[in-house]
Every structure is written in C-alpha cells, then in structure tokens.
Specification:
By secondary structure, the protein is mainly β. It has an 8-stranded antiparallel β-barrel.
C-alpha cells in the first residue's frame, strides 16, 4: 500500500458539472487520511461547493465524511464507498449528498476524483482534476 498512501493529504479542484436541468461549477476539496493500522479504511473529509451556471449567485455547500479502501495497482486509487455522514444537505438548495467517490493518482502531484450523489435527478455527481495542497 506504499503507492496508494501517497494520496493522503489535502487536494482541491474545480469542475463544471453539465447535468441538466441545472449545470453548475463546483469546487471540491478533500483531505485524505491514511489508515492508522493495517486493514483499517482510508478516511476522506470532503467539501463540495457548487454554483449554478445559469442563475444565482450563491454557492451551495455540503460536506461529507467518507470511508474507503485503497488499491495499490498500476494506478493507485482509493474507493470511498461508505458515507459516514453528509452535512448541510437538507439546508442546501439542491439537496444533494455524497454517495461515493473514487480518487486516483494522476501524474506526480495531481489526482482525479469522480463522485456520485444522492438526491433529486440534478444530483448526478461529477469529475475533477485535483491539485495537491500538501502542507507537511
């Protein structure tokens, strides 16, 4: 798990989510923490801030705590398939919550993230290229 452990840290990226009827621009921030013992899951803390492209001037913000497993294959990745908690979903105008996320290494200091959401039809998920925000 040496290669997948390199995904631990802080990541950030911007994506345009083109799902009708409400395309939006989203900023994804995620902090990934390594397991503290063998067999324990990776933990991810995400903040997703989205603004509708065609109307509105307010960001819709939701957060999630995710748990998942790492894959040290040819392209290291972490699949966050368990949502421990969704925060701010009921208060947001879209009512979208995180369902799952896959973070995959992309070059030396980047990663990609693909997420799916729960909620109304407009909550389909999205994809973003993430830059490392390592502070340690």
């Amino acid at each position: 798990m040496a290669n997948v452990a390199k995904l631990a840290g802080k990541w950030e990226g911007i994506a345009t989510v083109s799902l009708p009827p409400h395309p939006r621009t989203c900023r994804l921030q995620i902090e990934i923490r390594k397991p503290d013992k063998d067999g324990a899951p990776f933990v991810g803390y995400s903040i997703l801030s989205c603004m509708p492209i065609w109307y509105g001037n307010r960001y819709v913000v939701s957060s999630a705590v995710l748990s998942g497993t790492g894959d040290d294959g040819v392209v290291p990745s972490i699949s966050f398939d368990t949502v421990v908690s969704n925060i701010g979903v009921a208060e947001s105008s879209f009512h979208c919550g995180m369902r799952s996320m896959r973070v995959q290494a992309f070059g030396s200091n980047r990663a990609t993230a693909k997420w799916t959401e729960t909620g109304p039809a407009m909550c389909g998920g999205g994809e973003a290229v993430l830059d490392s925000r390592r502070t340690y």
